[in-house]
Amino acid sequence: MIVITAPTGNIGRHLLSRLLESAPAAGEELRVIVRDPARLPDAARGRVEVVTGSHAEAGVLDRAFEGADAVFWLVPPDASLTPYDTYSGFTLPALKALAAHGVGHVVGVSALGRGTPLADRAGLVTASLAMDDLIAGTGVAYRALACPSFFENLLEEADSIREKGVFTDSVDADRKAPMVAVADIAATAAGLLLNRSWTGTDSVPVLGPRDLSPNDLARIMTEQLGRPVRYERQPLDELSTTLVGHGLNEAFVQGIVDMKRAKDEGLDAGVARTADTTSATGFEQWCAQTLKPAVLV
């Protein structure tokens, strides 16, 4: 039995789709934890066991982890909480449930940066890495998917790209760093969940085919969209003021600012690309398949 948290989110929906295709042949049953079962895809109906509720709740986890062999663990960031409460606080009930039900394997979504000098001052990333340590401390076999920024973050800029030809971030325009498509994160998770021959604790980097700077992204978007797109760098203090003004928790906002500062200082750099760490989807392909339909509506 494989339990999937956040099955209707960006990563979870891709993972659920993959497991619906592959799990039956592998003799695996699927169970999902979801607040609103109506949001599950039609393909899942009647084919997965559904536990309704939040995976922050001990009672929900107790029902969901009973008889489970493996769990996909994804914490949805909550901008009303502190970084600690968002990740570690949210995960504490799961630690008890994993131990109580003897779950053997967990695959979690985390971040790059472990072992670097920046890891202790990287805001949300630091909080995510602390969550990994808590899960690993239960004794389960654990694989943390160490992810860079997602291509999908640019979907939040679709209106600005359409209307102004501009996208923003806070890193240097020439700062190259890995990025990845969420579908490729899901593919890596599916492989680990279906083939549980691994033991112990480790991080699994999931990197796009090449490092890209904001200027690279602008050039490729211009080519793929057939219209000029340029990058504007937003100062961190301006970003902080804007987010606090939108009502986000001030500690959470500081976590975002610290994360972005660390990324601009090279937090995501330094992981070697190998056949095992490099995913399939390039930015050009993602633009054509995902960003272009969102912008050119």
From TrEMBL:
Short name of any one Pfam family annotated for the protein: NAD_binding_10
User: Which intervals hold domain NAD(P)-binding?
Assistant: 8-194
Quote the InterPro entries the UniProt record gives.
Ergot_Alk_Oxidoreductase, NAD(P)-bd_dom, NAD(P)-bd_dom_sf
List, alphabetically, the Gene3D superfamilies matched. Answer: NAD(P)-binding Rossmann-like Domain (3.40.50.720), UDP-galactose 4-epimerase, domain 1 (3.90.25.10)
Q: Which domain of life is it from?
A: Bacteria
- Protein name, please? NAD(P)H-binding protein
